[in-house]
Amino acid sequence: MGKGRTGQQRDAGLTTPPAPAAPGRGSGALTSHDVARLAQVSQATVSRVLRKDPKVRPETRERVLRVLAETRYEPNAAARAFRTNRSGSIGVVVARLSYQLYPAMLEAIGSQLARLGQRMIVWDSEHGGDAVASRALRQGIVDGMILTAATQESEFLREVPAQSFPVVMVNRTVDEYDCDQVSSDNIDGGRRVAEYLVACGRQRIALIAGIPRASTIRHREQGFREALAGLGVELPPHYVYRSETFSHASGVQAVTRLMELASPPDAIFCVNDVLAMGAMDGARVRGARLPDDLWLVGYDDIEIASWGAYDLTTVRQPMDLMVAQTIELLLARIADRESPARHVCLPNELVIRGSTGRHPHPTPGHAPPKPQRQDPRA
User: Fold this and answer.
1) What is the pTM of this model?
2) For the chain, which domains are there?
3) C-beta separation of 268 from 279 below 8 A
4) pLDDT one-digit tens code per residue, 129-171
5) Which phi and psi angles does 282 have, rounded to 5°?
6) Per residue, what are the HEC states of 298-326?
């Protein structure tokens, strides 16, 4: 075609382009101008295709996409970030990756971000990740940050003022930090366990708790204690074991101490599944028959909890929904920094398995409440 043909005429798709040829060795990285030349369209049209502009004619879009695929063109991320003031990356700060809940949460976040065309960058707060993540957010390396295991003592919270940058907490919450937060109702989860054990006739109920630094652990214990008290059931101090770690070994140690009591418990609530699994193995070593002699309940419903060796009754968090709500809030916060911070609290589910004899909940119509979207400042 003549050199005078305009970009608009090329977009009309009146010519059949030759098969694209990759740039020769030493020619440097492929640019959008190279793609435009090979597809016989304007560079502006290539940009519109990359932006998924609906105004581009379907046949033109198909031609450009074919060239992009054949040449394996990668847009220049730095240039795009300069034009849009967006990096296209989301940061995630994690902790306790040895506990299966957090890798599962990270996988769910990565999967949902990938479907939205966002990249994920991960930092581990237990290995200096808080400081690096806060710098990345301030420098614009990421557009926003998801915190999965924050506590009031987290270094990230000291380094990044609330509402100055797009930050969303998921799973653990910190009331004093005024950002968007997504949690499940851990108070209600602990309450459900207590109500279930009492309704099923358990009389000597014990608790394997943890250091209440994390909101999840603190709220589970709170709900459990409040429900027992409301039902007139005592939780004596010698039936409470507070573990400094959340390991299998801690669960073994805790149940060993509890079973050494003159009147050992006939049911134990553990504030997470790994503690419960350690307690189960420790009880078996001591000759206890589960569920005949002892009932055990965990929390989180990690994958191993459903395995036949444990078959653990536990409380399940709505992980995929929590992650979806988190990403929705974060993208909205990136777009609008001025709106009030929100707190979404989602219901949990008591999953009954073999560690409590698959005994159904005796209360008729016992069902989880409907999801709630709450603004704690309302």
Assistant:
1) 0.76
2) 7-75 (1.10.260.40), 87-184+319-347 (3.40.50.2300), 186-317+350-374 (3.40.50.2300)
3) yes
4) 999 999 999 989 999 999 999 999 999 999 999 888 999 999 9
5) -65, -40
6) CCECCHHHHCCCCCCEEEECCHHHHHHHH
